[in-house]
Design brief:
Blueprint (H helix, E strand, L loop, with lengths): L1 H12 L6 H17 L3 H15 L4 H18 L2 H18 L2 H18 L2 H17 L3 H17 L3 H17 L3 H17 L3 H17 L3 H18 L2 H17 L3 H18 L2 H17 L3 H17 L3 H18 L2 H18 L2 H24 L1 H37 L3 H66 L4 H12 L1 H47 L3 H5 L4 E7 L7 E7 L4 E9 L3 H21 L6 H15 L10 E11 L4 E9 L2 E6 L2 E6 L5 E2 L10 E6 L3 E5 L2 H4 L10 H12 L3 H16 L8 E7 L1
Antiparallel strand pairs: 1-11, 2-3, 3-4, 4-5, 4-8, 5-9, 6-7, 6-10, 10-11
Helix pairs in contact: 1-2, 1-3, 2-3, 3-4, 3-5, 4-5, 5-6, 5-7, 6-7, 7-8, 7-9, 8-9, 8-19, 9-10, 9-11, 10-11, 11-12, 11-13, 12-13, 13-14, 13-15, 14-15, 15-16, 15-17, 16-17, 17-18, 20-21, 21-22, 22-23, 23-25, 25-26
């Protein structure tokens, strides 16, 4: 009986799905087996197999059992028990959306599994970690874990497990919007599931294929697959699966503008998800309901559902969902006419979008897949025999362990019969048989220990062979990488890059010919390098000239000092030219205008915008003589940017953040400042107290035809200091990716105020460099102090 129980439980561990009635039979068998065993380790084994059965349906019960068995496994130093316990605990946190805790326990379980070569649990833990990183939008990390799992499943001929991982890899490509590749993986997964008649898996594949057709706007085909999936899930009484199908059908009806039917399916879905405490599922349904109400122009209700879903997504760090929801909130607030809120969520959406779809992640995914393919091809011939041998040893070991448990149980039963037998001869015979069974169990245990030592020896040999192959592969890859870097450094163009890639692909076959061709390749490389150097020098001269022109356009420090007592300027373009600029005009001996702006972009695009800004300020202030109201200047500047950039008829959203101060010297030796800002503030000291004139939360340029700005006023005593800046200084990060921040800048203003004005520039630069360390400059930086 125990042999049958443990065989069934092994099947459970590698991923096969069982119906409720099958699980009940297995559960009853395990409970009966538990009553018969006396060995502590065997008891822990059976309890954990029971917990694994509960993991799908009664996770709280499974969690309670796992916690107790973890303590027992620690006492017994039973490593597999610890692995199983921590896996179940991690899965419980995973189901609740507590990803940090889930990751902690799954990683601990994975570490021991790798050390002890428990490949089944290496696969289970890696797959769960892959799911978590997928939800969090960390696709390269997710793919890494899925590829680990796929390798184990393929090596062990686990068709069910292989189909699950193929499906998960398809999910990653879907989230990266690579629908053809995602469909390819889903169809591979479906084919295997149909071969092994995995109804639950077939339902999942139907659902995922429906999702691809949905994204490709093939709605009839999508609905067909959704309904096929739902039918199977209803047969299996799979509540979580049914709720997911309801949600997908709701999404489909939303696209078809059948809003009442869509809401009906979303509500049916969320009712089940609340019952199951399915956090991610609830997020998807709330997101769908927000979209329906947005389409119906019920903006308040749409915002309410979207914000609820966003809070839940932030709690579980579901980056992909945060990206979708922040964009929905941007759309809702924009349509509602609350443009400041809309802009706030648009910027949030853009940040998360950049985090998900950045070049490094796409490169990492491509590299991981290439690496996995290369490793597979290299090792499958060399190590196939060793893998089979180790797998056989593991199987023999499990058989021996089960036989020991069976013999111990048999001896226990014979002893019980002997004690209850009244006939002395029969009792003696039973005692003898019990003693024989015990002796056989001990012999088996000794043999098992010897086999274990032999297996460890073979595993060490196996690992040494793996390490040897790894070193050979790394050496080869190092040579190939060095050659590729050489080609890039000398600047081969796009066509030459194609040739070199082709050369690398055939490099192994052409190594003998390499020396013969080296001289001609060297000449070709040098020719290409010289051509690119000429082009690079010409571009460098053009950019340097652009920098020279920009230097002419922006204000001179001496011009500013002709009106103010003194000034210091920190102006640090991220590239040669800058998207920041500062501008000054002396209207008369008692009147002047000073501005600091941060334009969209940096480098050459930002520089073009900065020169346009300088030109427009000159027109408005010097030619039209509009200077006493900075708010009016900002409104006119916005209107002209909007017109020149044709933003009424295009998707161009370029513009600038800017602060403008109008200074007027008074008869009582004070200076009055009138300030207006578009997402820009100025700071000044009044009786040793740091104060701010805050700008409006508007952006100059973009789709809005007009903006409204307001003037703010302050009176400055002689020898007062006022500071203008762009956000480059506070946004600069250090090596730990931590921003300097506005709070820290205000502290620096206090400290700088204690120093002489002449030393302040050096102080601010020193503090910036101290914070930045070896980190790269991320934006143009401008900080200007004026001594009135």
């Amino acid at each position: 009986m125990q042999r049958i129980c443990f065989f069934i439980c092994t099947i459970i561990l590698i991923g096969h799905t069982h119906s409720f009635s099958q699980n009940k039979k297995i559960l009853d068998s395990l409970k009966n087996a538990y009553k018969k065993v006396t060995h502590d380790t065997s008891k822990v084994k059976i309890q954990l197999e029971i917990a694994m059965l509960y993991e799908k349906s009664k996770i709280d019960t499974a969690f309670a059992v796992a916690e107790k068995m973890f303590v027992q496994s620690e006492k017994l130093n039973y490593q597999r028990g610890k692995v199983q316990s921590m896996y179940i605990i991690g899965r419980k946190y995973y189901g609740e959306g507590n990803y940090p805790k889930a990751t902690e326990y799954l990683n601990k379980s994975l570490k021991i599994s790798e050390q002890m070569h428990y490949n089944d649990y290496v696969a289970l833990n890696s797959n769960s970690l892959g799911n978590i990183y997928t939800f969090q939008g960390n696709f390269p990390q997710a793919l890494n874990y899925y590829l680990i799992t796929l390798k184990i499943k393929e090596n062990s001929s686990d068709k069910s497990g292989t189909s699950i991982i193929l499906n998960n890899i398809g999910n990653i490509h879907k989230k990266q919007n690579n629908y053809p590749l995602a469909l390819e993986y889903y169809q591979k997964s479906l084919k295997i599931k149909e071969e092994i008649k995995d109804k639950q898996g077939i339902a999942v594949s139907y659902n995922n294929i429906g999702n691809i057709y949905f994204e490709e706007t093939k709605y009839e085909q999508a609905l067909e697959y959704y309904l096929k999936s739902l039918k199977i899930k209803e047969e299996l009484k799979d509540k979580k699966g049914i709720s997911a199908s309801y949600n997908n059908i709701g999404n489909l009806y939303t696209k078809l503008t059948k809003y009442e039917q869509a809401l009906e399916y979303y509500q049916k879905s969320i009712q089940i998800k609340d019952e199951l405490n399915d956090v991610m599922g609830s997020i998807y349904s709330l997101q769908g309901m927000a979209e329906v109400y947005l389409a119906q122009k019920d903006y308040e209700t749409s915002i309410e559902y979207a914000q609820q879903a966003l809070r839940m997504s932030e709690e579980v760090k579901a980056l992909a969902e945060i990206n979708v929801l922040t964009y929905r909130l941007y759309e809702a607030y924009k349509l509602k006419g609350e443009y400041n809120k809309a802009l706030e969520y648009y910027e949030y959406a853009k940040r998360t979008n950049d985090s998900i779809f950045n070049i490094d992640k796409e490169k990492a995914i491509a590299n991981l897949e290439s690496k996995a393919t290369l490793e597979k091809k290299e090792k499958e011939l060399i190590l196939l025999a060793k893998d089979n041998e180790l797998n056989k040893l593991n199987a023999d070991k499990r058989t021996q362990e089960l036989e020991i448990v069976r013999k111990e149980t048999e001896a226990e039963q014979l002893l019980n019969l002997a004690r209850s037998e009244k006939d002395k001869r029969k009792a003696d015979s039973l005692f003898a048989e019990a003693q024989k069974a015990r002796l056989e169990a001990e012999n088996l245990r000794t043999k098992n220990e010897n086999d274990k030592l032999e297996q460890e020896k073979r595993q060490l040999t196996y690992l040494a062979e793996l390490e040897k192959q790894k070193n050979i592969r790394n050496t080869f890859l190092g040579i190939a990488t060095t050659f590729l870097l050489l080609m890039v450094v000398v600047g081969i163009g796009y066509r030459q890059k194609q040739k070199s890639n082709k050369l690398l692909a055939h490099q192994q076959a052409q190594l003998v010919e390499l020396n013969k061709n080296l001289e001609s390749q060297k000449e070709e490389i040098e020719t290409t390098y010289n051509q690119l150097k000429i082009t690079s020098d010409a571009l460098g001269k053009s950019i340097n000239y652009a920098s020279h022109v920009q230097g002419i356009v922006i204000a001179e420090a001496e011009d500013i000092r002709s009106f103010f007592e003194d000034v210091f300027i920190i102006y640090l373009p991220r590239d040669v030219v800058s998207g920041d600029f500062y501008w000054f005009s002396k209207i008369s001996d008692t009147q002047s205008v000073f501005a600091v702006a941060d334009c969209t972009g940096h480098g050459v695009p930002g520089a073009f915008m900065s020169m346009l800004g300088c030109t427009l300020l000159n027109e408005i202030i010097n030619e039209q003589q509009i200077y006493q109201s900075p708010a009016r200047i900002l409104e006119l500047l916005h209107a002209r940017l909007h017109k020149i950039l044709k933003q009424h008829s295009s998707k161009n959203s370029d513009g600038m953040d800017i602060g403008i101060g109008y200074f007027e010297k008074q008869a009582n030796s004070t200076t009055k400042i009138t300030f207006a800002g578009a997402k820009s503030n100025v700071y000044y000291f009044d009786n040793q107290e740091l104060k701010a004139l805050e700008g409006d939360r508007v952006f100059l340029g973009g789709s809005h035809t007009e903006v409204k700005c307001s003037d703010k006023y302050a009176t400055l005593e002689n020898s007062s200091t006022i500071y203008f800046q762009t956000d480059g200084y506070i946004d600069q990060n250090n090596m730990e990716r931590k921003r300097l921040g506005s709070k820290k800048l205000q502290e620096l203003f206090f400290e700088a105020h204690q120093k002489s004005f002449g030393n302040q520039r050096e102080y601010f630069l020193q503090q910036l460099h101290q914070h930045q360390g070896a980190a790269l400059q991320r934006d143009d930086i401008t900080l200007i102090g004026i001594l009135v």
